[in-house]
Design a protein that fits this description.
It contains 13 helices and eight strands. By secondary structure, it is α/β, with parallel strands linked by helices. Helix 2 crosses helix 3 and helix 2 (42-50) packs across helix 13. It catalyses: UDP-N-acetyl-alpha-D-mannosamine + N-acetyl-alpha-D-glucosaminyl-di-trans,octa-cis-undecaprenyl diphosphate = N-acetyl-beta-D-mannosaminyl-(1->4)-N-acetyl-alpha-D-glucosaminyl di-trans,octa-cis-undecaprenyl diphosphate + UDP + H(+).
Length: 245
């Protein structure tokens, strides 16, 4: 039997594939188990490695491998992660479940025009999912109590938060016990993609596992963030070699 968790640079990833992840998360929601999903790519792993408080959050979360670099790292270290579980695809699959079960959904984050466009697109695509709240990510610290109260009163099955990493996961962890959400998930730039403001890489780039390069070419300002990828690769290989010796 395949073990259900694989550890990459001290970050515990679920080893479930995409469909298995959806089924497992759905089961957890239906059983009333609170779940904080972290979609972790190499950049997130490196942040967790360098930020002890954030690593503590990740260690207690349900971490999925969002990034082909995680799959390669698992292969290099002989661990059973064989499939990416990307954030935007996971969001869409969970919305399909919300449509099927008439779950409540709360959307938080992104720019005002983006979040409202994303809400309209998701409402049209999944008419039986109940979008019980929607709020952009440009709020002041003194407004947080009101936002948390609003989410708590709505009691959504799904809470999607787009505040950027690691802030989105730190925010959810801070208010976890007050939010009354069955599942909380940081979705990064997913609302930008769903709204149509940002185009996802063409399918051929996705199949070639070059989505990261497409985004870099489209947004050259991301180059500093992309430096985490070679650092991640070197750190994984260094740990592999040191464990062998």
């Amino acid at each position: 039997m395949t073990k259900q968790v694989a550890t990459i640079l001290d970050v515990p990833f679920t080893t479930r594939g995409f469909r298995e992840t959806i089924d497992h998360i759905t089961e957890r929601i239906q059983n009333g188990q609170k779940t904080h999903v972290v979609t972790a790519n190499p950049e997130i792993v490196m942040v967790a490695r360098e930020n002890r408080a954030f690593r503590s959050i990740v260690e207690q979360a349900y971490v999925v491998p969002d990034g082909i670099g995680i799959v390669y790292a698992a292969k290099w270290t002989n661990q059973p992660i064989y499939e990416r579980v990307t954030g935007v695809e996971l969001l869409e699959a969970l919305m399909a479940k919300a449509d099927q079960h008439q779950w409540g959904v709360y959307l938080l984050g992104a720019k005002p025009d983006v979040i409202h466009l994303a809400k309209d697109k998701l409402s049209a695509r999944y008419p039986n999912a109940r979008i019980v709240g929607c709020r952009d990510g440009y709020f002041r610290p003194e407004e947080e109590t009101q936002i948390v109260q609003e989410i708590a009163e709505a009691k959504p099955q799904l809470l999607f938060v787009a505040l950027g990493a690691p802030r989105q996961d730190e925010w959810m962890a801070k208010y976890r016990d007050q939010l009354n959400a069955s599942l909380m998930m940081g979705v990064g730039g997913s609302f930008d993609v769903i709204s149509g403001k940002v185009k996802r890489a063409p399918e051929i780039w996705q199949k070639l596992h070059l989505e990261w390069f497409y985004r870099l070419a489209s947004e050259p300002s991301r180059w500093k963030r992309q430096l985490a990828i070679p650092r991640f690769v070197l750190t994984v290989l260094k740990e592999k070699w040191s464990s062998r010796s």
